[in-house]
Write a structure and sequence with these properties.
Length: 379
């Protein structure tokens, strides 16, 4: 009879051999078993149509769109790219549905996963690339309002909010970035029958507010926070669209009222200031064709104007500060242009149409400063 210790060793060795054999069989089966099929769900769902696009730089961008889903609804879809649109990744989308009132759903992306989405009446924000979204409250809005431009700089969020009624207003709102509240900034308001404004970041914060085509008020902040009054970009009777600071020069577009000099047109011209707070000068006039839809500057002298008229979308561009112009007509999509911007020296984007337009929507991109545009393939 074997000693108890020897029997224990023998049993242990036998068990170890059995475990080794089973492990080897599992490894072999894993090596030669067929690979599981890839996920059937593509990054870009069938029927996806872009609503808004925003780029942090020439390569890093987000596109918010909508795709058909259950119950004949349009469900939000957020896509991200880090290579200029060659490849796309599906991100977590905000909860905002496609508005029935045809408001533009505006996406504003500032890099490192920081983005805002607004339908004009509601605002949601993410700080983690779409993994989580949270509502941002707008204080003291009144009954009828529209939330316009949104920007983030130097740790603060800025937005323009317009109210409507017998006397309307456009006010500057602000709050600490990442907090769930934006409130009016005292003293930064324009009131009248028709009010408007614009803001820009990059090279310094700029805010312009005006009413009824009178004299506009304009402020700048080199530190992105402490705004001080400065000479207005445009003469009385015109409104300013801000193109940011490019090559040390501040760029603005001055436009007349819609329908002047003729229906479906607006007078417009480019002006420059030598730096924040400087005097704007310039007399170069651009094409009047189309009603203003957006303005962007690739460089101080290379700018593009988005306009729509007669059922067509126009991109008027200049390479020499407004001395000469070229026009691109974008067709085959719903009328209307949005989100014109130049996140890189040569790279710009614009969205044509809307998801629920009969002819759909598309994102167009330029890599030559606005001289030529091509539809960006998404999916």
């Amino acid at each position: 009879m074997q000693p108890r210790r020897d029997r224990h060793v023998l049993v242990t060795m036998t068990c170890n051999r059995a475990v080794s054999v089973v492990f080897a069989l599992l490894v072999l089966s894993a090596l030669f078993a067929p690979m599981p099929p890839a996920s059937a769900e593509p990054a870009v769902p069938e029927g996806f149509a872009p609503a808004s696009a925003s780029w942090a730089d020439a390569d890093d961008g987000y596109v918010l769109g909508y795709a058909p889903c259950a119950g004949s609804r349009w469900c939000p879809v957020l896509l991200g790219t880090t290579d200029g649109g060659t490849r796309w990744q599906r991100l977590g989308a905000p909860s905002l549905s496609l508005p029935d009132n045809h408001n533009h759903v505006q996406l504003s992306y500032f890099g490192a996963g920081r983005a805002y989405v607004s339908d004009g009446n509601r605002l949601e924000a993410t700080r983690d690339g779409g993994r989580t979204w949270s509502a941002v409250t707008l204080a003291d809005t009144g009954n009828a309002f529209y939330l316009g431009r949104i920007a983030e700089t130097h740790g603060r969020t800025f937005a323009l909010l317009s109210t409507y009624g017998e006397t309307g207003s456009t006010r500057l709102y602000s709050g600490v970035a990442g907090t769930p509240l934006l409130a009016p900034v005292p003293g930064f308001v324009a009131t009248g029958g028709l009010t408007y404004g614009d803001l820009a970041v990059g090279g310094g914060l700029q805010v312009v507010l005006g009413a009824d085509y009178g004299v506009e008020r304009y402020w700048t902040a080199a530190d992105g926070e402490h705004l001080t009054p400065a000479p207005a970009p445009c003469p009385a009777g015109s409104t300013a669209a801000l193109g940011g600071v490019r090559e040390g020069r501040v760029v603005a577009l001055c436009s007349g009222s819609a329908g002047s000099p003729r229906p479906g047109s607006m007078t417009r011209g480019v002006r420059h200031a030598p730096g924040l707070g400087g005097e704007f000068t310039g007399t170069a006039q651009g094409p009047a064709q189309g009603i203003h839809q957006g303005f962007g500057a690739a460089t101080a002298n290379s700018v593009t104007v988005a306009a729509v008229g007669g059922g067509a979308d126009f991109l008027h561009g200049t390479d020499d500060g407004g001395a000469t112009w070229h026009t691109t007509v974008l067709g085959d999509h719903g009328a209307g242009l949005a989100d014109l911007d130049f996140p890189g020296t040569d790279t710009g984007i614009v969205v044509a149409g809307a998801p629920d337009d009969p002819n759909g929507s598309a994102v167009f991109r330029t890599t030559d400063g606005g001289r030529s545009w091509h539809e960006l393939t998404i999916g």
